[in-house]
Amino acid sequence: MASRPAPVDPLTLEVVELIGSVVVRFHQEYDEAAARHSLTGAQARLLALLHHQCLPMREIARRLKCEPSNVTGIVDRLESRGLVERRPDPADRRVKLAAATESGHETAERLRASMDFASEPLADLTPAERALLRDLLRRMLGDGYGDGPPATPSDTPAD
Amino acid sequence: MASRPAPVDPLTLEVVELIGSVVVRFHQEYDEAAARHSLTGAQARLLALLHHQCLPMREIARRLKCEPSNVTGIVDRLESRGLVERRPDPADRRVKLAAATESGHETAERLRASMDFASEPLADLTPAERALLRDLLRRMLGDGYGDGPPATPSDTPAD
DNA sequence: ACCGATTTGCTTGACAACATGAAACATCGA
DNA sequence: TCGATGTTTCATGTTGTCAAGCAAATCGGT
Q: What H or E segment, with its residue span, contains residue A77?
């Protein structure tokens, strides 16, 4: 089985597979870190978003790449735990802005700090190698590797 | 907000963020590719596993990093569509081996072929750079970067 | 400027997939 | 026989979709 060679060279194939492994590990550890704070992965991602700025529901949906109706539920759960609140948008009474509460910001910050796990696998690389890896990843991702416009591209290099 | 600088250098931090971007894009496109074949992400991952070899349920759970009781449902759904079948293990009558059917193997192969999206972002890199990236990722992931034994560790192109 | 029609933003409801944990059951191994 | 192991079932919760609904904004024609 798995006998037919794919129409791509083995090198590319291996890189793809390696990236797959990175993805699996990253995702897994992200979820574990979130769980340590009694959050699911989706809740942690949402809270991290709101740590930077408050956002209307539809914008959250766009960034998380899911339906707005889904965001309602996630915000509901976070709101019921006092980590997030809904505020009216003075400019448009239809929209509701989700914002992290004080407690939400604290949780988000603790979460981010505990996220240093991600740097641990990089410990084996020398700074020069890390720079190399950074450049290769940058070129791989192309220009706008983030999906949303960061408020200020200069600060908060971590997401 | 996000005032405390993380106890890691900016370079590492940026690499972490880049990896995060890779993870997001990879996941998203993986799910889309799966959806094109009427599969969910979890089903696609399971089917890809079984494309290499048939496995007992508990082993699938270990590789997918979830509970065995969860695997039951995913295999159920794939089985009801004729992509997977359960076979008894002659050596141990407790275990059930999940195996891809003929149709399952075909789907897995089509899926893998349509997965070339993942190689597309690599197109901008020269072969030498790809090799470099491969080596860096390998070292980053440590020895056993897959979670299962690779079919033939020897068939990786030598440097 | 007014009023109806359409669009937009969010929520609700029904439903499916995924995930966990506890409990049940058969089977293995000591 | 007894404990451990492999699988399933059940209850429950989160995430995701889609369709329908409501409120508010916007547009077009008079």
A: helix A68-80
Tell me the Cα Rg of chain A.
Answer: 19
Structure tokens at B18: 């880049």
Class level of CATH domain A17-118: mainly alpha
Q: Please, are residues A19 and B22 in contact by the beta-carbon 8 Å criterion?
A: yes
Does the C-beta of B72 come within 7 A of strand C?
Answer: no
Q: In what order do the strands lie in the sheet with B84-89?
A: B55-56, B92-100, B84-89
pLDDT tens-digit series, residues A110-150: 998 887 656 677 778 888 998 999 999 998 887 654 444 44
| Nucleotides of strand C within 7 Å of the protein's CB atoms | 8-14, 17-23, 26-29
* Distance, CA of B30 to CA of B22 (rounded, Å): 12
For the domain bounded by B28-121, which CATH number is listed? 1.10.10.10
What are the tokens at A3?
């006998």
Rg (CA), chain B: 19
